[in-house]
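Appendix B, example 12.
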Amino acid sequence: MVGRPENHLPMSVSIASFIDHTLLKPVASKSDIDKLCDEARQYGFAAVCVPPYYVRRACEDLQGSKVKVATVIGFPLGYAKAEVKQVEVSQAIADGADELDMVMNLAALFSGDEHTLRREIEMILPEVHARGKVLKLIIESGTLSDEQIRYCCALYGQYPVDFLKTSTGFAEKGASIEAVRLMRSLLPAHIQIKASGGIRHYDQVKQYIEAGATRIGCSASVAIMQEAIQQV
């Protein structure tokens, strides 16, 4: 399990430890990933989040630093079968990933197929934890009703999931303060929350942290840090 940062900001720049510096565009190049990792080192972000293809390169770029390497599983639609996601997880871990951001099977959720949802998490979570890695489960909250968010929190709250993550950033709607507050009110203390999707400003980051998020996924991380530094 990863540690839970305090939900307050003693200094503006302390938000760096909450941020997953993210680049998941399909047209991202090797030089783009190198730049992402250089920025993560410079600002001390919690992690970089990169496509599976770039996990090994990010690990090489960040060797000797404290920045973690995260990648995505079943991304961005989530409806791959559990066996496929399991192969993705195994490969990502073999390539050096520390954290896995996996999209839940949304098709199963909207079909009322709880058996598939349970089977998926029960197949994948033990392997992730057996290798000492972190699982962030993406529920795509912007596409869900409050009732569906409550269902996800009740279901996954029964498992030692490390994080529930709001969004992929590829859906029509990303994170919302309301969704994070609802999730925090329902989830057990052992499950942290990662907010992602549409977070571009320092004030937004503060609001999400105050609402209960302990990790923030964003591609505008450097601009956010520059805003933060200006307010110190």
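Strands lie at 19-22, 47-50, 68-73, 99-103, 134-138, 163-165, 192-196, 215-218. Confidence is low (pLDDT under 50) at residues 1-12.
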